[in-house]
Each structure stands twice: as C-alpha cells, then as structure tokens.
Automatic annotation (TrEMBL):
Membrane topology: Multi-pass membrane protein
InterPro entries: ABC_BtuC-like, ABC_transptr_permease_BtuC
Family: Belongs to the binding-protein-dependent transport system permease family. FecCD subfamily.
Primary location group: membrane
Sequence intervals crossing the membrane: 21-38, 72-93, 105-125, 131-147, 154-174, 202-219, 245-271, 283-301, 313-332
Protein name: Iron chelate uptake ABC transporter family permease subunit
Keyword check for Membrane: yes
CDD domains, A to Z: TM_ABC_iron-siderophores_like
Subcellular locations according to the entry: Cell membrane
Domain of life: Bacteria
This protein's UniProt keywords: Cell membrane, Membrane, Transmembrane, Transmembrane helix, Transport
Amino acid sequence: MKNRFLSKNASTPLATKLPTLITTLFSLLLIFATLFFGEHITNNFHDIWQLVTGSADRYQSIVVWQWRASRLFAALIIGAALGVSGAVFQSLVRNPLGSPDITGFNVGAFTGVLISIALFGNLYWLSVFSAILGGLFSALLVYLFAYRDGHSGFRLIIVGIAISATLTAFNQWLSLTVSLETAMTAALWSAGSLNGMTWSRILPAALLITVFLICAFLLNTRMKLLEMGDDTAAALGVSVNKSRLILMFVGVALTAVATAITGPIAFISLAAPQIARRLANNANVSLGSSALVGAILLLLADFIAQHGWENSTLPVGLVTISLGGIYLVYLITREGKL
C-alpha cells in the first residue's frame, strides 16, 4: 500500500510537466519546419546544416534568414501579444468570451488604421498610432455604455458585440467612399497577413510590443486580485477602477499594435488563454502560458496558410478566422450548458 502510494506520487511531477514538454517539442518542430520546409530549400540535412553553420549559398541564406526567419519572429511576437491581450480581457470580465475579437477592440483598431489610410496614405507609424487610438476609442465606448453601478462581464461582452457591429458598418461605408486605390490597400490589409514581413518592419514594432508585454506582466498581481472580485481587491488595497483602466489600455495597445502590423487576426486572443489554462490544468488565466500558446497558434496558422494549399499562400487571418468560428461555436455551446 505504501509503495503504491509512493509510486503514484512519484508519477505526479511527470504528469504535470508532460503538457509543457509536449508543447515545447511541438514548438521546436514547428519552428524547424517553418524555416526549412518548402520551396527554394532542398530539405536534405546537408543543406540544412550548411544553413545553420552559415556556409550555404547566398540565395538560400536570404530565403531562410531574411524572409522566413523574420516572418517566423513576427508570428511569435504578434501571437504572444494577442495571447496576452486575450488573457488580460478574459481575466477582467471573468468570462472566456471576453477577448478583443468578441468585444470589438480589434475592429476599433481597424477603424483607426482605415481612417489613417484614407486621410494620410499608408504610413507605417501613423497607422500604428491610429490603431492604438481606434482601439482605445472602441474600448472607451464599451466601458461607458456597459457601466451600470459597476461592470458586468456579460454586459461588457454584449455591448462590445454591438459596438463591433456598428464600427464594422462604418468601416464598410468608409471603404466605399474612398478612392479605389485606398480601398484596395485597406481590403488587402484587412485580411490579416504576414506576407512581406521583413526585419526592418517587425523589429521596431516588436520593441513596442515588448514594452507593453512587460507592463502586462508587471500588472499581473493586480489582475489576479481583480479576478477575486472588486470588493475583495479593494479590501486588499487595489484601486479597482484605476487598475482596470490601466489593464484595459495595455490590452488594447497590444491588440492595436499587432493589428496595425498585420491587419486584424481573429481567434488567437479568444483561444490562447483557454487552451493555456487547460494545458496547465489551472482555473486562472496565466499571462506567460497565454503568450506561449498564442505564439504557437499564430505560427501554426501561418504554416497552414503557406503550405496548406498548393501554389498559393493565403492570408493567415483567413485561416485563424475559420478555426476561430469553429472554436467560438464550441465555446458558446459549452458556456450555455453551465
């Protein structure tokens, strides 16, 4: 009896670490496939070794380390930003449906970029700034309209859906009133894509995303206290409204910067925190796990977008929204049974 008890306890650490181990191995395999699988690379180990050691021919080195590596890094950093943003909002509203995809903050960021393109052309940093303003404006609208003697998570989601629908209609009207060239630029951007991602484009944005990620992790303790309820958080010395507004700003900023770089990418913010929570078998939403799962999900979706259809590369946003639609139906069905 004692030996059996000890044997059961001895297996517990392995069972706890197994999901992390599997996730890590899958991530490494996916990174390897993203870099070395596909056209322009012969895919034999000799050539791959030459690429790793820097002795490959110049063309293959450019393909792998300039084009594919920059796209891989963009998928990882943007996926992490979206995963953390989703975790922040799901924690604030205490509901798995409370992500920027559902509450319309990414649509608000899209509105900001669309107005910027219509008025000033496709200027990169102006688009980033406009996306943040648009996301904050939509968040402010949701926050104001949902307030009624405090904030209910369900009410925030419903108001967010309504604001999202209104902004979507405005975006469509604006697309019809601008010039054809501007409308085509906005349409291509709105699909959500990592095509044409370069180091010079992603590195400045990655620095900005890193700053907001650090802010999110510094606010993690406040976020955990807010999950316990406003009264409990206030009793423990947390300024509830101030903390919520700061967390909302950080979450919106992460979504907005990601949206400004790639266009709106759905599903990642919605699914990453919940998948991370189930992998960790934890009732709370973890920022670190959400960032990791978000990065893996976007990298996997981009790999499917590049290699899932012969002789064609789809925008990654089309892949994520297809998967996200299936996941959203499952999530709504599951929440309705609770």
